[in-house]
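REQUEST FORM: STRUCTURE PREDICTION
Request ID: SP-0412
Submitted by: Lab K.M.
Chain count: 1
Length (residues): 163
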Amino acid sequence: MENFESLYRSYYEDVFRFLRGLSGDEHLAEELTQETFFRALRSLDTFEGKSDIRVWLCAIAKNRYYTWCQKQNRFSETEDPDALPSEGTHFTELLADKEQALKIHGFLHDLQEPYKEIFMLRIFGELSFREIGRIFGKTEHWACVTFHRAKAMLQKKVKEELL
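STATUS: Completed
RESULT:
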């Protein structure tokens, strides 16, 4: 396995973009990226290599973000913070309303795998379809089709529930 400094240099930008997408705050994303790599360093020996290291780092980053949100009382105890918003013009408008944003988070949370993970990697990880396909051992086309199916599922749910 790569040494930690090389790992940091190789994946810092990916983790930072993922967190910036989650939080919408560049300074918070920078702080949480540092925490993510600190946590990764402490638990590097537990990484089994069964998934792409980028996915492992983004999972740590997501957990750091949710911990931060809980400390900020961003989510109520009855709502599940384990979901992420989607893309699209009307989604962006809906996300301006915190209550609707939390509902959209819930819709994403309810998506089945691999749709949920692919959607998150594309939107929040800002990965290309080629990179996503490589992570899953599939083609770029498969990643693109799967992403668009996930997006269509979310859009349908938003239309049914929120519009």
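NOTES: The two ends are 49 Å apart (CA to CA).
Reviewed by: T.R.
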